[in-house]
Amino acid sequence: MVGVNSRLDALQAAVLKVKLQYLDFYNERRKEAAIRYSDYFKNHKNLVIPYKAGACNSHVFHQYTLRVLDADRDGLVDHLANYEIPSAVYYPVPLHAQKAYADPQVISSNFIVTNRLVNEVISLPMHSELTNDQTRFIATKVLEFFE
Questions:
Q1: Which residue of 35, 42, 52, 53 has the fewest C-beta atoms within 10 A of its own C-beta?
Q2: Which helix (DSSP H) or strand (DSSP E) does residue 67 occupy?
C-alpha cells in the first residue's frame, strides 16, 4: 500500500533543532569519509564508485553506494558481515516490481538498467563519525573479497 509516515514529535524536533547547528560539520565529515572510500576503490575492475562531476562538492553522501561488477554482490555482503561490518542493499526490489505499484501496463523488461542495478549495488557504512581507521578497515575487507 502506498503511504507516508512523516510524524515528528516534540522530542525529536528538539534534538534536530540542536543538531541542525552542526549540519555543515556533519556533512563535511561524511564527504571526507566518502573521499577516503573512493581513494581505496578507484580503478578497481569490479567496483564502480559514486560519480562526482568535476569540482562539484555538494554531495553529502547520505549513503556510500558501490556497484559490484562481475562478482557476487551478496557474497560481499556476507563477507563483510563476517567482520561485523554492516552493509545494506537498500532497494532490493525496484519500484516497478512492488505490489503497491503493480500496473499491467508496466513491462519489467523496459527497466533494463534498474533491473541490473538492483543486483549490483551495496551501501557501506556512512556517517559523520567514521574515522580513518574505520574506513581503512572496511575498504580493506571489501578489497580482500576480490582477491
A1: 53
A2: strand 64-68
β partners of residue 123 = 65, 88
Dist CA 82 CA 124 (whole Å): 14
What grid cell was written down for 74? 551478496
Q: Which residue has the cell 563535511?
A: 28
Residues 6+ apart with CB under 8 A from 85: 124, 125, 137, 138, 141
**Pairwise CA distance, residues 26 & 16, whole Å:** 13
d(CA 22, CA 123): 24
The CATH number of the structural domain formed by 10-145 is 3.90.1150.10
Backbone angles phi, psi at 127, to 5 degrees: -160, 170
pLDDT tens string for the chain (147 positions)?
A: 677 777 888 999 999 999 999 999 999 999 999 999 999 999 999 999 998 877 777 888 999 999 999 999 999 999 999 999 999 999 899 999 998 888 889 888 999 999 999 999 999 999 999 999 999 999 999 999 999
Q: Does the reported pTM lie above 0.90?
A: no
